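Memo to structure team: turn this sequence into structure tokens by end of day. - J.P.
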Amino acid sequence: MKIVITGSLGNISRPLSQQLVNEGHTVTVVTSNQKRKTEIETIGAIPAVGNVNDSDFLTNVFAEADSVYCMTPPDFSQPDQHEYYRTIAHTYDEAIRNSDVERVVYLSSYGAHLPSGTGFVTGSYVTEQILNKIPDIALTHVRPTYFYYNLKAFVNMIRSVGLIGAVYGGEDKLALVHPRDIASVVAEELQKQNSGTSIRYINSDEKTCNEIAEVLGRAIGIPDLKWVTITKDQALDGLRRGGVPENAAQNLVELGLALHSGRLLEDYEQNKPTFGSVKLNEFAVEFAEIFQNNAANIHVN
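Reply from structure team:
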């Protein structure tokens, strides 16, 4: 098959592209970074350098593809996160309609069943609604849960104050997912010969915040590590002092509050998937390496 992957060589797109290449598919990887071109070629894929907000570029890339994987690159600098998602969604919409693509997999999120009150995830809801209106395609919205690597955002907090603090915590439950498990599901969906629109949740493990703190604490040598719940104002103040733009900060906190209330997990609980292979204990080893190197890569799902 001829398959187009957006997301450059990110946390999901890299293992996804490698898996598809190894399975014998012709894979084109879309990247906005010219410097990624050689690296993409090295894994056996074809680089397409351009931006996902350029519908003419995407239309040309999608033109001969059998299936495409679409995602919205995180960009905290955007002044209106929901409008940013809407803009990228319309670009995908136009490119898909103007090409002959028949199979589309979109990286959405758990909580995307809700039209508001979920921060960044509201953008995933908006995108799903736009793509749902495209006729004559097989469309799957994959909805991963809380990315393990979001926990990396707490590395500096642990190092400076010795605890994890967020508007969610304590006995709040997190459904956790690893990028490798997401990549495996997306690869499967891209090759399906089905029709219509479907939704598929992706998860790797489930733990309370207290349990996560315990596992991570043991891994980094802080066995009494705590995960405390802080107020909205405290969370916003910390994000602002950390240089996070205001709209992104507001969306992060709103997302966290939806997680704390349990709203984010409502539909997931009714459609719980078979869990992936990467459990929290395995990720904790990766987390400990980052903690020891004092380096955190911050991403949002």
